[in-house]
Amino acid sequence: MPRGEGVRLQKVLAQAGVASRRAAEELIADGRVEVDGRIVTEQGIRIDPNVAVVRVDGTRVVVKEELVHLAMNKPRGWQCTMSDDLGRPCVGDIVSERVQAGQRLFHVGRLDADTEGLLLFTNDGDLAHRLMHPSYEVSKTYLATLFGAIPRDLGKKLRDGVVLDDGPVKVDGFALLDISNGLSLVRITLHEGRKHIVRRLFDHVGFPVGRLVRTDVGNIALGDQRPGTLRVLGRGEVGKLYESVGL
């Protein structure tokens, strides 16, 4: 980069919310900042935020100003589309103001209309693609209310794997949380992205799903976010998300 072009590294770190400029200078002096794989200790170095890969303490810091990363709690009954020809409520309604303001947002994967919970949005197509691609094995966690009192060995059976009509599937984690009134509440973690995979899995073992809520995608948790709301992901959350897919 020609001398004098670009933005000073400490300013970039401050704008990204890492630290104040003065604290950013201390991070640089302490050798905790990396640019394009090289530790930088000199003050005043200039970088191009649109192409530089910056890490602090090994965690990626997203410094492109125009990048957007959002978490939505998708309500039950809403379509997972940006618009709906039949006029049904859809996730595009919740982000419509941002889209009208010129942001081109991708929803990361889908949740069927009857499934609620965590849905990520970004305008970074590379990130969206990798988060959805099975080779990166990003885990997803769900709370499922099942019809019937499940047997104790169901978790082992699902961890060992079962074969559905489109191939085998095994879960990464399974926990029975509660059984009452003929219903079982379970938590299930898997890194599958196939359509209706959780519902098909439980149908296959004879315990259909009533309510299904996605609570986590990778390191991002739904927490107590209210249905129908958006929140901007925090810097640490975004950094770990990029790290999980090798960006």
TrEMBL record:
Gene3D superfamilies per the UniProt record, alphabetical: Alpha-L RNA-binding motif, Pseudouridine synthase I, catalytic domain, N-terminal subdomain, RNA-binding S4 domain
Domain of life (superkingdom): Bacteria
Protein's UniProt keywords contain RNA-binding: yes
Enzyme class: isomerase
One of the GO BP terms on file: enzyme-directed rRNA pseudouridine synthesis
Name recorded for this polypeptide: Pseudouridine synthase
Catalytic activity: a uridine in RNA = a pseudouridine in RNA
NCBIfam families: pseudouridine synthase
GO molecular function term, any single one: rRNA pseudouridine synthase activity
Family: Belongs to the pseudouridine synthase RsuA family.
Keyword Isomerase carried by entry: yes
InterPro entries: PsdUridine_s_RsuA/RluB/E/F_cat (IPR042092), PsdUridine_synth_cat_dom_sf (IPR020103), PsdUridine_synth_RsuA/RluA (IPR006145), PsdUridine_synth_RsuA/RluB/E/F (IPR000748), PsdUridine_synth_RsuA/RluB_CS (IPR018496), RsuA_PseudoU_synthase (IPR050343), S4_RNA-bd (IPR002942), S4_RNA-bd_sf (IPR036986)
Keywords: Isomerase, RNA-binding
Species in which this protein is naturally found: Rhodococcoides kyotonense
Database matches in Pfam families: PseudoU_synth_2 (PF00849), S4 (PF01479)
RNA-binding S4 domain: residues covered: 7-68
EC number: 5.4.99.-
